[in-house]
Amino acid sequence: MLIEFKSVTLERSGRTILKDLNLSLVQHRIGIIGDNGAGKSSLARLINGLLTPSDGEVWIDGLNIAGRLTEVRQQIAFVFQNPDNQIVFPVVDEDLAFGLKAILPHARDRQARIMEVLGVLDMQDLAKRPVAQLSGGQKQLVSLAGALCRSPKLMILDEPTAQLDLRYRNRLQSILSELPQQAIVLTHDLAMLETFERVLVIDKGHVVHDATPSVAIAWYERRCQA
């Protein structure tokens, strides 16, 4: 997908969060890094219309989000940092089915899609598990499964490894490396981005660096040490 920011400014509660962004994002794997409060999450939420620009326009594959929000959202899945903000129902397959009702009206089709996605993630054994019995890493994978069930073209993941132990962090990285969907990942886990095609560094609402992972991460680390 081609994601375009055209002179985008975002203000909230009288404060400028993002200022005059002009971006064209088309790479298969894009990382976004920066200090807390730099504007990373706000930038990501503009892509699927969770936030609306105060000025400027966001376009997805030639569609202006302002006028085609429903159509755009059907192509994009957002995975939040805290899976408890995303998981609603008490049993895994019930939660996954809820997000599919508008897409697949027949229960048999929904269940087939759910098991297909859980199979891809090697999580079939969790289908009937109560969410309350899952670990943090398992919940994060359920959130990812919920996003994938909708067959999006673009995945946006906000700090996906923040609450994971090393085992689940490595598992998530392996899964992401094999998914066919385009992905934009916001993270402080710099090592996760080493195989990506492009990394943006955000600071105080501006893109202050934009390069390949090795160059962008090295620049950001030097900046943090200065």
Automatic annotation (TrEMBL):
Annotated ranges, domain ABC transporter:
3-226
Q: Which domain of life is it from?
A: Bacteria
Any Pfam family the entry gives? ABC_tran
Which CDD domains does the protein's record reference? Answer: ABC_cobalt_CbiO_domain1
Q: Which UniProt keywords are listed?
A: ATP-binding, Cell membrane, Membrane, Nucleotide-binding, Transport
- A molecular function GO annotation: ATP binding
| InterPro entries to which the protein is assigned, alphabetical | AAA+_ATPase (IPR003593), ABC_transporter-like_ATP-bd (IPR003439), ABC_transporter-like_CS (IPR017871), ABC_transpr_CbiO/EcfA_su (IPR015856), ECF_ABC_transporter_ATP-bd (IPR050095), P-loop_NTPase (IPR027417)
Family of the protein in this entry? Belongs to the ABC transporter superfamily.
Which PANTHER family does this entry report, sorted A to Z?
ENERGY-COUPLING FACTOR TRANSPORTER ATP-BINDING PROTEIN ECFA1, HEAVY METAL TRANSPORTER
Q: What name goes with this protein?
A: ABC transporter ATP-binding protein
Organism annotation: Orrella daihaiensis
